[in-house]
Design brief:
The protein has two domains: 7-83, lambda repressor-like DNA-binding domains (434 Repressor (Amino-terminal Domain), Orthogonal Bundle); 101-274 and 281-320, Lipocalin. Helices cover 38% and strands 22% of the residues. The protein has helices at residues 7-20, 25-32, 36-44, 51-64, 77-83, 100-112, 114-121, 235-255, 263-268, 292-297, 304-315, 317-320, and strands spanning 123-130, 137-146, 151-156, 162-170, 173-180, 187-193, 200-210, 219-229, 290-291. It starts with 6 loop residues before the first helix and ends with a helix. The radius of gyration is 21 Å and the shape is globular. The longest helix has 21 residues, at 235-255. An eight-stranded antiparallel barrel has the order 1-2-3-4-5-6-7-8, surrounded by four helices. It is of the alpha+beta class. α2 (25-32) packs across α3.
């Protein structure tokens, strides 16, 4: 059965096909008759090729892989791999076959139920953080959605970072691991104070990023997440909203968040220390995390979290639709 393949999934398939037939970006651009930057946009998952470019791309692959055709792009994942001549991969190990801690986390999270975790954390978020390289605040978009037994989190800004990975709701905290989509040597890890049972509106925690530069070391920074909206059932509308919010966060990263965020919030966020070994700890009594219930009954009408949520939703109002 053929189906629609969105831009991020097409990017993964294109990387696989290019690797299988030993085609680089320059070669693809030359044979399709486009600029190499367009191929880069395809591989980053920003856009799908137009029909005429997709046909030319298919022909370039078919020259090296006889039998490959236009319809193969839309086949289920296993059938697409077979069309490329790739043998089916062995099934992934179940939780019991994973290393001890990860197996325990997976089993424990699964036992709590995906529906519960999704009710607590599922949605569209913007995460504010202090850059470990530049002494100023930046932000990334995140969508937390259903995954395979646990939550899946996708994190992205307009140009620098695009990660995806599992998220675990454990012990009133949300644990996220993300691998950079276009590379395998860059990843991120974060843990946030969340909510015991209610729907979280603000998350507060620490994030670590291992960048792909050969000499780079892990950087740790404080990060606060604000829920912008709930998940959408319409996949097309959700993708459109997602891309609009990524573009918006890029604009705000460029112009600077200092004029857009409440000064009190910036004061509450510890600054990253450049070149100094630092132990970073987030005491629970100082966390900004809050649930919808506590926001309604405990946060003052002019409270910081209530003000910030209102301001951010206004900043993203056009993107949210």
């Amino acid at each position: 059965m053929l189906r629609f393949v969105d831009a991020p999934e097409f990017a993964a398939r294109l990387r696989l096909a290019m690797g299988q037939v030993s085609l680089g970006r320059t070669a693809v651009a030359r044979e399709v008759g486009i600029d190499k930057s367009v191929v880069t946009r395809w591989l980053s998952g920003q856009v799908r090729p137009a029909e005429h470019n997709l046909l030319a791309l298919t022909q370039a692959i078919a020259l090296r892989l006889p039998g490959f055709c236009l319809a193969d792009w839309s086949r289920p994942e296993a059938e697409f791999a077979q069309a490329l001549g790739i043998a089916p991969a062995p099934p992934p190990p179940g939780p019991a076959a994973l290393p001890g801690l990860l197996a325990n986390a997976t089993q424990w999270a699964a036992a709590q139920g995906l529906d519960k975790a999704l009710a607590q954390y599922g949605g569209l978020w913007v995460f504010i953080y202090d850059s470990v390289r530049v002494a100023r605040p930046f932000a990334v978009m995140a969508e937390i959605r259903p995954g395979a037994g646990v939550l899946e989190c996708e994190i992205r800004d307009d140009h620098n970072w695009h990660g995806r990975g599992p998220a675990f709701a454990l012990n009133n905290k949300l644990w996220i691991t993300c691998e950079e989509v276009s590379r395998q040597d860059s990843f991120g890890f974060a843990v946030f104070w969340g909510s015991a049972t209610r729907k979280a509106e603000v998350l507060d925690g620490l994030a670590m990023v291992r960048e792909f530069a050969p000499t780079a070391s892990p950087g740790v920074t404080h990060m606060v997440g604000f829920r912008l909206a709930d998940l959408m059932a319409d996949a097309t509308a959700a993708q459109s909203r997602w891309l609009a919010c990524i573009a918006r966060v890029g604009e705000l990263n460029m112009t600077g968040w200092e004029g857009a965020l409440d000064p009190e919030l910036l004061e509450r966020m510890p600054r990253s220390v450049q070149g100094a070994p630092t132990t970073m700890r987030l005491p629970v009594e100082h966390t900004l995390a809050i649930s919808d219930f506590d926001l309604a009954v405990a946060e003052p009408p002019d409270g910081l979290r209530r003000r910030t949520l209102k301001d951010l939703r206004a900043l993203f109002s056009a993107a949210l639709g």
